[in-house]
Amino acid sequence: SQVGRKLAANWKLAFTSIWRILLLLSVLGGFLLNWKFRIYRRMKDELPCLAAGSVGMSVGLVVALLFNDSGIEPASALAVFLFFTWFLLLLGWRSAAAEPRVLREAPAST
Length: 110
What we know:
- By secondary structure, the protein is mainly α.
- It has helices at residues 2-16, 19-37, 39-46, 48-67, 72-98.
- The model has no long low-confidence stretch (mean pLDDT 82).
């Protein structure tokens, strides 16, 4: 059957392909970033279109993993894109928060 063949192909790739490591590390890294820094919540507030794209990519990741013959490969690629998007957002937000603020000089007293 077609479903059995797809499951067998995914199962074989899950244990023999380097993509499984990329998928695992990207998903764990994404969960860690979201848990520690609340990336998705901040992205949803400040960048709603990017948040919608992240949800779409997450759905695509699950669909690719479940319904594609070599589902682990496209799912891993999507997971890497999601992780790096979130990571780059975090770098931008963290560097903006770390920039020194310029204080106004007090007027000189005469």
